[in-house]
């Protein structure tokens, strides 16, 4: 019965290949219920998966593009400026007060 399911070390190898290829969702969809329980409960798989992450991180570190922080900061500053302008417009509306005793419709 258990021969048709992959064991923890086979799952770790398949996980490493999926991690390298960028196809983790496909790997996760391919798991049977028994294999999914094995992935969650097996310390052997978890150690193997962590080792695969480290090896892939070291092997492909030079090829990984780093995100540009300058673009992020420019967007944050633009959003802050936009909210400040919106808040300034809202303050003008709030400063108009009704004369006491009169309803705003008069």
Detail the topology: elements first, then pairings.
Blueprint lengths: L7 H14 L2 H7 L2 H9 L1 H17 L9 H27 L11
Outline the structure in words:
There is one protein chain. This protein folds into two domains: 2-59, no CATH class; 67-95. Helices cover 70% and strands 0% of the residues. It has five helices and no strands. It has helices at residues 8-21, 24-30, 33-41, 43-59, 69-95. It is elongated. The model has no long low-confidence stretch (mean pLDDT 76).
> How many beta strands in the DSSP annotation?
0
Give the SSE order as H and E letters: HHHHH
Low-confidence stretches: none
What gyration radius follows from the Cα positions, in whole Å? Answer: 28 Å
Strand % is under 5%
Number of domains: 2
The computed structural class is mainly alpha
Mean pLDDT: 76
Report the end-to-end length measured between terminal Cα atoms.
84 Å
State the helical fraction. 55-70%
**General form:** elongated
How many helices in DSSP terms?
5
């Amino acid at each position: 019965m258990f021969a048709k399911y992959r064991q923890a070390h086979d799952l770790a190898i398949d996980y490493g290949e999926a991690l390298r290829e960028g196809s983790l969702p496909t790997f996760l969809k391919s798991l049977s219920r028994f294999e999914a329980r094995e992935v969650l409960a097996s310390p052997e798989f978890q150690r193997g998966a962590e080792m695969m992450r480290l090896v892939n991180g070291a092997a492909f570190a030079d090829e990984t593009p780093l995100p540009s922080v300058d673009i992020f900061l420019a967007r944050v500053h633009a959003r802050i400026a936009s909210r400040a302008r919106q808040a300034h417009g809202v303050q003008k509306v709030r400063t108009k007060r009704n004369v006491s005793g009169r309803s705003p419709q008069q």
